[in-house]
Design brief:
Blueprint: E1 7-11, E2 24-31, E3 34-39, E4 43-47, H1 48-54, E5 68-71, E6 75-85, E7 94-96, E8 101-104, H2 107-114, E9 122-131, H3 135-141, E10 145-149, H4 152-157, H5 160-171
Parallel strand pairs: 5-9
Antiparallel strand pairs: 1-2, 1-10, 2-3, 3-9, 4-5, 6-8, 6-9, 7-8
Length: about 180
Protein backbone atom coordinates (compact mmCIF):
# COMPACT_ATOMS: atom_id res chain seq x y z
CA UNK A 1 0.00 0.00 0.00
CA UNK A 2 1.23 3.50 -0.75
CA UNK A 3 2.02 5.83 2.12
CA UNK A 4 -0.88 7.74 3.60
CA UNK A 5 1.37 10.40 5.09
CA UNK A 6 -0.32 13.83 4.75
CA UNK A 7 -3.74 12.22 4.42
CA UNK A 8 -6.84 12.50 6.52
CA UNK A 9 -8.45 9.45 8.07
CA UNK A 10 -12.19 9.96 8.42
CA UNK A 11 -13.85 7.72 10.99
CA UNK A 12 -16.83 5.97 9.50
CA UNK A 13 -20.12 6.65 11.34
CA UNK A 14 -20.21 3.14 12.77
CA UNK A 15 -16.78 3.48 14.46
CA UNK A 16 -17.25 1.88 17.87
CA UNK A 17 -13.91 2.76 19.45
CA UNK A 18 -14.69 5.75 21.69
CA UNK A 19 -11.16 7.09 21.13
CA UNK A 20 -11.85 7.51 17.43
CA UNK A 21 -15.63 7.87 16.98
CA UNK A 22 -16.40 10.94 14.82
CA UNK A 23 -12.66 11.64 14.47
CA UNK A 24 -10.64 13.27 11.76
CA UNK A 25 -7.03 12.14 11.98
CA UNK A 26 -4.13 13.83 10.20
CA UNK A 27 -1.44 11.24 9.40
CA UNK A 28 2.06 12.59 10.04
CA UNK A 29 3.94 9.42 9.19
CA UNK A 30 3.23 6.11 7.45
CA UNK A 31 6.03 3.75 6.54
CA UNK A 32 7.26 0.18 7.00
CA UNK A 33 7.19 0.67 10.80
CA UNK A 34 3.50 1.63 11.02
CA UNK A 35 1.86 5.02 11.13
CA UNK A 36 1.25 7.94 13.45
CA UNK A 37 -1.11 10.89 13.43
CA UNK A 38 -3.13 13.29 15.55
CA UNK A 39 -6.87 13.78 15.89
CA UNK A 40 -7.60 17.34 14.76
CA UNK A 41 -11.30 17.85 15.43
CA UNK A 42 -11.76 17.18 19.16
CA UNK A 43 -11.01 20.27 21.23
CA UNK A 44 -10.67 19.70 24.95
CA UNK A 45 -12.04 22.07 27.57
CA UNK A 46 -8.50 23.37 27.97
CA UNK A 47 -7.13 26.48 26.31
CA UNK A 48 -3.60 27.39 25.47
CA UNK A 49 -3.75 29.92 28.33
CA UNK A 50 -4.11 27.07 30.83
CA UNK A 51 -1.22 25.25 29.20
CA UNK A 52 0.97 28.37 29.39
CA UNK A 53 0.14 28.65 33.10
CA UNK A 54 0.75 24.97 33.83
CA UNK A 55 4.16 25.11 32.14
CA UNK A 56 5.05 28.56 33.61
CA UNK A 57 5.60 30.03 30.15
CA UNK A 58 4.05 33.42 30.78
CA UNK A 59 1.96 34.23 27.76
CA UNK A 60 -0.20 36.89 29.41
CA UNK A 61 0.00 38.93 26.20
CA UNK A 62 -0.13 36.03 23.78
CA UNK A 63 -2.63 36.40 20.97
CA UNK A 64 -3.18 32.63 21.16
CA UNK A 65 -4.38 32.36 24.77
CA UNK A 66 -7.94 31.37 23.84
CA UNK A 67 -6.91 28.72 21.28
CA UNK A 68 -8.15 25.25 22.21
CA UNK A 69 -5.95 22.29 23.02
CA UNK A 70 -7.06 19.13 21.19
CA UNK A 71 -7.38 15.50 22.15
CA UNK A 72 -4.77 14.10 19.77
CA UNK A 73 -5.29 10.42 20.47
CA UNK A 74 -5.02 7.69 23.07
CA UNK A 75 -1.24 7.27 22.98
CA UNK A 76 1.18 9.48 24.97
CA UNK A 77 -1.70 11.56 26.37
CA UNK A 78 0.69 13.40 28.68
CA UNK A 79 2.75 14.68 25.75
CA UNK A 80 2.09 17.64 23.47
CA UNK A 81 2.19 17.36 19.69
CA UNK A 82 2.11 20.66 17.84
CA UNK A 83 1.08 20.37 14.20
CA UNK A 84 1.96 23.59 12.42
CA UNK A 85 2.76 25.27 9.16
CA UNK A 86 6.38 26.07 8.57
CA UNK A 87 9.78 24.52 8.98
CA UNK A 88 10.88 21.91 11.49
CA UNK A 89 14.38 23.41 11.55
CA UNK A 90 13.36 26.22 13.90
CA UNK A 91 12.50 23.85 16.76
CA UNK A 92 14.45 21.48 19.00
CA UNK A 93 12.37 18.33 18.41
CA UNK A 94 10.49 18.46 15.14
CA UNK A 95 9.91 16.53 11.94
CA UNK A 96 8.98 17.88 8.56
CA UNK A 97 5.79 16.16 7.38
CA UNK A 98 5.48 18.03 4.06
CA UNK A 99 7.17 21.10 2.65
CA UNK A 100 4.53 23.20 4.45
CA UNK A 101 3.72 21.22 7.62
CA UNK A 102 5.81 20.10 10.59
CA UNK A 103 5.12 18.25 13.82
CA UNK A 104 6.97 19.53 16.88
CA UNK A 105 7.12 18.08 20.38
CA UNK A 106 9.57 20.44 22.10
CA UNK A 107 8.61 23.16 24.55
CA UNK A 108 10.45 25.86 22.61
CA UNK A 109 7.54 26.19 20.19
CA UNK A 110 5.12 26.71 23.10
CA UNK A 111 7.40 29.40 24.49
CA UNK A 112 7.40 31.07 21.06
CA UNK A 113 3.58 30.97 20.96
CA UNK A 114 3.48 32.48 24.45
CA UNK A 115 5.73 35.28 23.13
CA UNK A 116 3.74 35.74 19.87
CA UNK A 117 6.70 34.60 17.77
CA UNK A 118 5.54 31.09 16.86
CA UNK A 119 3.87 29.84 13.71
CA UNK A 120 0.67 31.53 12.52
CA UNK A 121 -1.23 28.28 11.90
CA UNK A 122 -0.97 25.48 14.48
CA UNK A 123 -2.92 22.89 16.44
CA UNK A 124 -1.77 21.73 19.86
CA UNK A 125 -2.74 18.14 20.60
CA UNK A 126 -2.36 16.15 23.79
CA UNK A 127 -1.64 12.60 22.78
CA UNK A 128 -1.41 10.98 19.39
CA UNK A 129 -2.73 8.00 17.47
CA UNK A 130 -0.56 5.16 16.24
CA UNK A 131 -0.94 1.91 14.35
CA UNK A 132 1.43 -1.05 14.17
CA UNK A 133 2.57 -2.39 10.81
CA UNK A 134 -0.49 -3.56 8.87
CA UNK A 135 -2.98 -2.52 11.55
CA UNK A 136 -4.31 0.54 9.72
CA UNK A 137 -4.45 -1.39 6.46
CA UNK A 138 -6.62 -4.02 8.19
CA UNK A 139 -8.90 -1.30 9.58
CA UNK A 140 -9.23 0.18 6.09
CA UNK A 141 -10.19 -3.23 4.72
CA UNK A 142 -12.79 -3.49 7.49
CA UNK A 143 -14.32 -0.21 6.29
CA UNK A 144 -13.51 1.63 9.55
CA UNK A 145 -11.95 4.66 7.83
CA UNK A 146 -12.09 6.69 4.63
CA UNK A 147 -8.91 8.36 3.41
CA UNK A 148 -8.38 11.55 1.46
CA UNK A 149 -5.42 13.83 0.75
CA UNK A 150 -5.17 16.41 3.53
CA UNK A 151 -6.16 19.99 2.80
CA UNK A 152 -4.60 22.87 4.72
CA UNK A 153 -7.88 24.81 4.66
CA UNK A 154 -9.69 22.00 6.46
CA UNK A 155 -6.81 21.59 8.90
CA UNK A 156 -6.16 25.19 9.90
CA UNK A 157 -9.07 27.35 8.71
CA UNK A 158 -12.19 25.24 9.29
CA UNK A 159 -13.86 25.26 12.72
CA UNK A 160 -13.20 22.00 14.61
CA UNK A 161 -16.84 20.87 14.55
CA UNK A 162 -16.87 21.17 10.74
CA UNK A 163 -13.51 19.55 9.94
CA UNK A 164 -14.79 15.97 9.57
CA UNK A 165 -17.59 16.96 7.20
CA UNK A 166 -15.19 19.34 5.42
CA UNK A 167 -12.78 16.48 4.76
CA UNK A 168 -15.68 14.29 3.62
CA UNK A 169 -16.69 17.09 1.27
CA UNK A 170 -13.34 16.77 -0.51
CA UNK A 171 -14.51 13.29 -1.48
CA UNK A 172 -18.02 14.54 -2.26
CA UNK A 173 -19.61 12.28 0.35
CA UNK A 174 -21.93 12.73 3.30
CA UNK A 175 -20.74 10.47 6.13
CA UNK A 176 -24.27 10.29 7.51
CA UNK A 177 -25.31 8.38 4.39
CA UNK A 178 -22.48 5.83 4.62
CA UNK A 179 -23.10 2.18 5.44
CA UNK A 180 -21.07 -0.24 7.53
CA UNK A 181 -20.85 -2.78 4.69
CA UNK A 182 -17.96 -2.60 2.26
CA UNK A 183 -18.25 -3.71 -1.33
CA UNK A 184 -15.53 -5.78 -2.91
CA UNK A 185 -15.55 -6.41 -6.63
Amino acid sequence: MQSLKHHFLLAMPHMEDANFASSLVYLCDHDDNGCMGVIVNKPLEVTLDALFDQLSLGGERSLHRSEPVYYGGPMHKDRGFILHQGSSQEWDSSIQVTADIALTTSIDILQALANNTGPKHFLICLGCAGWDVGQLEDELKDNAWLTVDAALGVLFETPPAERLSGAAGILGVDLNLMTRDAGHA
